[in-house]
Every structure is written in structure tokens, then in C-alpha cells.
Amino acid sequence: MKTNQTTIKATLQEANNGKAFTQIDLSSLPEFKETNFTVSKNDERFKLITNLRNVAFPSLPSECVIENTYSGILATDLFSLNTLLGSMIESKVVYFLNSHRYLWDDKGKWSEYHFIRSNESFPDVRLVKKVGKSTPLLGIELKSWFILSKEGEPSFRYRTASEACDNGDLLCIIPWYLSDAVCGNPVLAAPWIYSAKAAAEASKRYWLYERQTEKPYTLEQRGLITPKGVKPYMENARDETNYKPVYDGGNNFGRLARTGIMSEFVTEILQTDILGISADNWRLFLKAHTDSTALQDIQRKIKTITKIPKLEEFDLLMKALRDYIDEIPTI
Fold it and tell me: Engineered SS bond to 96: which of 45, 64, 192, 240, CB 3.0-4.6 Å?
């Protein structure tokens, strides 16, 4: 957004009364709480969901091992790895959940259920009965995130309508990287787990109220169209369960990272240690090379990278990385 435009603020009441604004008065908005959109303690699935959030998914980094090894990847292709490997990683996670069911069903209460993938519909993983058709017990929308990607945050668009989410559904973002930064086997980091319905509400709230715009718009102009007849666990294509913005010239609706609900998680994950160097510094180093062609420009960008650890092995690591870059064929 351009900063030389006039800022027009509005309170929530003024916005609801039709005032056009570029920026909402955040103090006028009610506090956003994830728990307003989750199951109650009286729900029979409460312990199951708690185990998934607090036991099963946090066990992924130590218990879910991916043995596939990748090497010889061009530096310019590293940023697209999530497109290439994301589906495989998500399938591995579903296998992990079914093979480690004691982590989420320690009493055997849900033994007749198992997780299946449903890629074309929302959510893409559903807990259903093993025999016969049944309404899913809950759903999990899985998203993988290669933490060396250029954006420095999960860049997927979460456009799902809140009405398409059951209160028991979860959204899980699985960060991962290659064991040797530019090659090796995929390694999973601690995932981010959140209520799928709350995430949809956060995305909606951000789009309608919290985002700052270049020009003043009314809530009607900022609006979202809810798909007709939408409800949880539809078999329709996922596009049919998505909100449609009235206007979205930049195709930005649904960028969940911009809502701020995962900011702490992103900051922590980008400090993941990979061969003694933080993931964010690897990302910036690779980004400097792929975004630039002139050597001086590359050197200038590398110098802007801060907080590089002063380790004895650092010079050797940087030399190894430069040697790797030097071996990449010129395109």
C-alpha cells in the first residue's frame, strides 16, 4: 500500500453505518479469541482434539521421519520445493496420524475411525469410519511450508468460508526444510495448529476491517460473498466453499499470515538452526542470489543479513555454500 495517501479512519460503529475508510480504529474492534470458535469441554471430541493439538502434532519433528533424499537442486529452484514436495509431506503426515493413533486415541474410543485425504474438498484430511459412509468426526486442513521460501512466511491463501468449518476442525501448518539446507532429506519442524473456523473468521475480519487500503472503501465494497448452501464436509470442489471478495484487484484475499495470528510462530520457526545457521539467514542468502544477477548486488544484499552466528565452523559452512553456488550451471 502506498503511504502518501490520506488516511481516513473509522470506528467499528462508523464503518457499520456506511462510512468509507482506509484504516479502522483497532481499539473499537472486539477482542478476537480463538476459543470462541472451538468445541466446548462438554463435546465428546474435546479430548481427541486436545490430544491432536498437544500430543500428536507436536510429536511430528521427532517421530515422523522422511527418508527421501534430494540433491543437485538448482538454487533458483529451491524456492519452489514446497510445490514439488508439499503433497508428499502431507501424505506422510496422514500416514503418521494413522500409525500413531495412540497419541490421539489413547483409550481406543475412536478405533473404528481413521484419517483419509480428500484433496479436492475442504478440509483435505477427514477422520471417518473405516467401514461405510459416515459424517466425518472432524477435519484437518494440512498446509506445508518450506521455511526457506522467499516470502519468509506461509504464503498460501486461506479463503474458506467460516460456515464450511465445523467447530472441531483444525488448520495445521507444517514447516519443513532440507537437512543440509540445499540438499538432504526433508525435516519437519514444530507445526502450528489452530481452529480452522477461527482462522476463517480471522481472515474475514482482516479483510473487512483490519487491512489498510490505498483508497477509502465502505464495508459493502470490502465485502465477502458467502457461497450458497455452504456447510461442513461438503463433497464439492473447495472453490465452492470459499468466500468470494467483492473486489480484490491484487488477488490478496486469504493471505492468513497478514492477519497476525501466526506471527509469533513464524518468528520462532525462522530461527530454526540448520547446520549452525538460522533458517532466516539461509533464506536471505539464497534470495540474494536468485533475485540478483550482478555480483556486487549479491554482495551488498548478503552484507545486510544480520545475526549470523560466530561459530568456528561458520567460514567452512559459507565456503561450502559458495562452492555449491559456483557449481550451479548458468541458465
Answer: 64
